[in-house]
Write a structure and sequence with these properties.
By secondary structure, the protein is mainly β. It has strands at residues 4-7, 14-20, 26-32, 40-49, 58-63, 70-81, 86-95, 103-104, 111-112, 126-130, 137-148, 160-163, 173-175, 181-185, 195-205. It folds into two domains: 1-38, no CATH class; 40-205, no CATH class.
Length: 206
Amino acid sequence: MANTIVAVTPGSGASIAVYNDATPQSFQRVLAAPEGSQATTYFASYTGQSIGTGATTNIITFAGSATKTVQVSRILLSATATTAASYFDVLLKRQTTADTGGTAATAATILKAQVADATATAAAPIFYTAGPTAGTVTGTQLAVKLFAPITGTPAPVVPVELLGNPGRMAKPITLSGITDVLAITVNAVTPANATSWDVHLEWIEF
């Protein structure tokens, strides 16, 4: 009896082969790749960016795609301050419209986990060096404190991971369309002194 191959939904990384061993009994062998190994993954980062010392609204926004569904899998933030250590309340918010105005840093380069993958359809996250007018906010999805030590001091810089806890069973934050926007704020604080921020964001598209 010839082997029978049953195709599995793309993205699972698995196929099922049914064999006959010359007896009335058949058996199966299942070959499975690690979960998520077939997901088309993208990365974008900002290094040493300042949010300024004026009134701050959003410091980062990331919108969905016009043609694909976007799932945000990881966000990392860290910061240092120039003259006095600072604590920030970092909020991850959801908006139904994009920001307007403000000053944006040069857009981050989007990299792919595999160079042969298609180009990302979502635009790079925006880092604001001067606060924009925020879009329509539907709510806050996460709040956490971030400590920014003085640049060059022995104090450790501990990144804050807004998303990306391995093993979580919760569904990833999913963005549907360009008006579905994630926004990161420092709770409308006006920074007392200049800060330097590093940001890393990962997402998949399907």
